[in-house]
Amino acid sequence: QVELVESGGGSVQAGGSLRLSCAASGRTFSTYAMGWFRQAPGKERAFVSAISASGGITRYTDSVKGRFTISRDNAKNTVYLQMNMLKPEDTAEYYCACSPLGLPVGPLGYDYWGQGIQVTVSS
Prior knowledge:
The protein has 123 residues and is mostly beta strands. The chain has strands at 4-7, 10-13, 18-24, 33-39, 46-51, 58-60, 68-73, 78-83, 92-99, 112-113, 117-122. The protein contains no helices and 11 strands. The model has no long low-confidence stretch (mean pLDDT 95).
């Protein structure tokens, strides 16, 4: 059992920034890869970014590359998603998740999920 709690969402204008945080309860946080997904109204949950257990490998979906940065602080059991140059297309509910194996981009590769947090970007 791992509990994930997201924070840092909200509403911003296009071009603005937000930083999402995801705090994990588990003692073995450092052994899990962590990912961020998002789901916009009427769309499937989609991969955004992921980071390896040590933080040495990161992945991004093409639409956020160069604008978003994923990072983690294993001492704090927390993963972050820094979102810059936000666009209305980024509007979605964002979820963090942990994976025990590899660095998957599919949601089925993740065992535990946060409750989701809303990000709204206006033009």
